[in-house]
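dumping this here before i forget
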Amino acid sequence: MARLYYTCWRHMGVDDFSRLITAPAAPPLAEGHLEITHENQVSEAFPQYTTFISIKATADCAIAFTGIDGNDPVADPDFHFVGIDEYRFYGAVAGTKIAVIEAS
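structure:
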């Protein structure tokens, strides 16, 4: 079954000179996945201290995030496309949710 994997992160990594590097600092705060189907699937709320997330899809899909109204997100198959095996980062905050649906 196709899945959207997501990982919640707090910090970026740092090198020996305390400079940021372009990689998240492990371990992550939380990890999860959603099945990519023809129906909207919604994650649990991201945990406290989340500042950004990474996602990877194993099939073409579309995603959405919790809006400013606080309601659960609804992914639309025609918007915010994520391609198969694409790996992306997004800024995020605690309490945000992500939704996914098959892309049309």
